[in-house]
Design goal:
Elements lengths: L4 H31 L1 E10 L7 E10 L8 H27 L4 H12 L4 H8 L5 H13 L2
Antiparallel strand pairs: 1-2
Length: 146
């Protein structure tokens, strides 16, 4: 199948999509933790009756966030979940697109874009007397072709 230039545009979004997945998962985890958190403390006091002996008490309970709008966390969570869904969708589109291109180019893209290797490192991985310049040129030609 011929690779259309529009298909190649999705590759440019891949790295940002991966970062968005990480950021959204971290933010969702923080929201989950902030919804309920066990708080512990120790307080002292004395009995009401004579003799007024000092006592120490261990208290424990769930702490909920103090937000003026109680639905704010729900809205933030919904936005994050949608952001996560869209980023995951872009990653899947790239995976499907990768299946439509030549295997050699799949390897070059995987090493350069996904693993963020230098052109020299890509050339070493490609083997067969590949040089950094030759691999880079091959990649540029592929990305420029219609």
């Amino acid at each position: 199948r011929e690779v259309r230039p529009m298909d190649k545009e999705i590759l440019k979004q891949y790295i940002d999509a991966c970062e968005q997945v990480k950021e959204a998962k971290t933010a969702l985890s923080k929201i989950k933790k902030s919804r309920k958190r066990v708080e512990q403390d120790r307080v002292t006091g004395s009995s009401h009756d004579f003799p007024y002996t000092a006592k120490s008490f261990h208290i424990e309970g769930l702490a909920y966030p103090t937000i003026k709008d109680p639905d704010e966390l729900d809205r933030r969570e919904a936005v994050l979940r949608e952001r996560l869904r869209r980023a995951e969708e872009i990653k899947q589109q790239v995976d499907l697109w990768m299946l439509t291109i030549p295997q050699r180019m799949q390897r070059i893209i995987r090493y350069k874009i996904f693993e963020e290797l230098s052109w020299s490192e890509v050339a070493i991985r490609m083997g067969r007397k590949a040089t950094a310049d030759s691999v880079k040129k091959e990649y540029q030609r592929f990305m420029d072709e219609k």
